[in-house]
Design brief:
This is D-arabinono-14-lactone oxidase. It holds the Pfam family ALO. The protein is built from 15 helices and 20 strands. The chain is an alpha+beta fold and 441 residues long. The protein folds into 3 domains: 176 residues, Uridine Diphospho-n-acetylenolpyruvylglucosamine Reductase, domain 3 (2-Layer Sandwich), CATH 3.30.465; 215 residues, Alpha-Beta Plaits (2-Layer Sandwich); 45 residues, Vanillyl-alcohol Oxidase, Chain A, domain 4. The two termini are 33 Å apart. The protein binds flavin-adenine dinucleotide. The site of flavin-adenine dinucleotide has 32 residues, from strand 4, helix 3 and strand 11.
Length: 441
């Protein structure tokens, strides 16, 4: 009998036994491994909070499949293997003077993991919208090249690794630019009505909302010439201790959730009350490069026009003392432009995304905030981030994703034996074991 090993996610909230682990370094090997296994999942840097990366006996570790394949300097395109770490990719393209103009606030994830879950930044499109071509290894091990001209591209861009494994990816890049970033605290009554005008005025907009304080921390960015002089102000030196201070203040918030309300007021005063100003490339100036500790994340998205109403409702709900939904700082508010990808949060609508963090990953199951946020966003037609925590399944998802049924049909045609489904994904798409049913029939 084969020995069982344990797969553990980044924040240790998901654990699965497995018997075979393949570390692949070539497309041929990827295709061979997929063809010979009946059930298989594949993972990048294991940083998703949703149970989407493992849960099958055979697993593929994509992180050694991480080379830059080629550059086309005339077209500003670059082709990479999907296990490449995002930070390595961004540094490589910056070195040739290019950028991807919308980046998530994390650089340790793999390209494949980022694309599969619809990873996004702010004031632009999902990362997957900058992909113009990819090769996809299908359930039978065959390799399909998909370009922007193919109808399939809209289905594949965000597909949680349910249609196949993305092998090589070609991105269309833009010329790198310098961003002048300004940060300051603002009352909710100030920043909320200014969202639309600021989206027009600035190249970058992000708001770190500070629940239970009536304040947000507004970050704007404007493109400038690299040699433009600015008065740099990085705020007091102690700001770098914010995450550790949060960890300490929230330590017992799972036992006494109301502590959060007091902790947030202290954190807002200490770490979000000073103005800051700096410049750099989008990657250098806005993406967090290191995190002291793990956390558990949820994130919901809503049409831009509906956001003020959802925000008000959420604020009222979490400020009720009868409610245990106290929320750790910050709730990250970002903006994504509409696209046509079937499972994109921004499918045919400009959206606002709102993060919800539990700084105690181990006690996330008791964090009421995840439930309250989900209830309110779902009620208004909000869509959950695929890589983060949510409990909605097939029925709810079919109401908020217009292309959900089309995606499910395509998935079952491309993977008729459900090779790529783990238990979580099986429930998500409400998949029936087609082959077995046919055999019985
Ligand atoms: C601290 C932190 C900050 C974050 N910040 C952001 C953010 O700013 N914006 C945002 O949108 N998200 C953010 N996320 C979510 C994160 O981007 C996603 O969870 C992402 O999927 C993690 O990438 P990974 O390499 O760890 O993938 P994994 O978690 O290992 O895998 C994720 C999914 O991708 C699939 N997959 C992996 N490789 C491939 C491939 N080659 N082809 C097809 N499918 C594949 C896996 O099977 C799995 O279903 C953040 C997460 C953390 C922990």
């Amino acid at each position: 009998m084969k020995q069982k090993n344990t797969w553990v996610s980044w924040n240790e909230n998901i654990k699965h036994n497995y018997t075979s682990l393949y570390k692949i370094t070539s497309e041929e090997k990827l295709s061979e491994v997929i063809a010979k296994n009946d059930k298989i999942r594949f993972f990048g840097n294991k940083q998703s909070s949703a149970d989407i990366a493992a849960g099958t006996d055979a697993l593929i570790d994509m992180t050694s499949y991480n080379k830059i394949v080629s550059y086309d300097y005339n077209k500003k395109t670059v082709t990479v293997q999907s296990g490449l770490i995002l930070g390595d990719f961004l540094e490589a393209i910056e070195a040739v003077g290019w950028c991807i103009p919308c980046l998530p606030d994390i650089n340790t994830i793999t390209i494949g993991g980022a694309l599969a879950t619809g990873t996004h930044g702010t004031s632009g499109k999902l990362l997957s919208e900058y992909m113009i071509e990819c090769t996809l290894v299908l359930a039978d091990g065959s390799i399909k090249t998909i370009t922007e001209e193919d109808d399939l591209m809209d289905a594949v861009r965000v597909s949680l690794g349910m249609l196949g494994v993305m092998s090589t990816i070609t991105f269309k890049c833009e010329k790198s630019y310098t961003l002048h970033v300004k940060e300051r605290p603002e009352k909710d009554s100030e920043w909320l009505p200014k969202i639309k005008s600021r989206l027009k005025e600035h190249d970058f907009l992000r708001i770190l909302w500070l629940p239970h304080t009536d304040k947000g921390y507004v970050i704007t960015g404007d493109k400038i010439k690299p040699d433009t002089k600015i008065v740099e102000n990085n705020g007091p030196k102690y700001l770098k201790h914010r995450r550790n201070a949060s960890k300490i203040l929230y330590k017992y918030s799972h036992i006494y959730p109301w502590i959060t309300s007091i902790a947030n007021k202290i954190l807002a005063k200490a770490f979000f009350s000073s103005k800051k100003e700096h410049k750099g490339t989008l990657y250098q100036a806005t993406v967090t490069k290191s995190r002291g500790s793990t956390l558990e994340l949820a994130e919901w998205t809503i049409a831009l026009d509906k956001f003020p109403q959802v925000f008000d409702e959420l604020k009222t709900e979490i400020n009720k003392w009868s409610n245990k939904s106290f929320i750790h700082i910050p709730m990250d508010v970002r903006f994504v432009k509409k696209d046509t990808s079937w499972l994109s949060y921004a499918y045919k609508q400009d959206i606002v995304t709102m993060g919800c963090v539990s700084r105690n990953a181990a006690t996330a199951d008791t964090y009421e905030a995840f439930k309250s946020v989900e209830k309110i966003f779902l009620k208004h037609g909000g869509r959950p981030h695929w890589g983060k925590r949510f409990s909605a399944k097939d029925v709810e998802l079919s109401r908020v994703y217009p292309k959900w049924e089309a995606f499910k049909e395509l998935r079952s045609n491309l993977d008729p034996t459900n090779k790529f489904l783990n238990p979580y994904l099986t429930k998500l798409v409400n998949a029936k074991a087609k082959k077995v049913i046919n055999e019985i029939a």
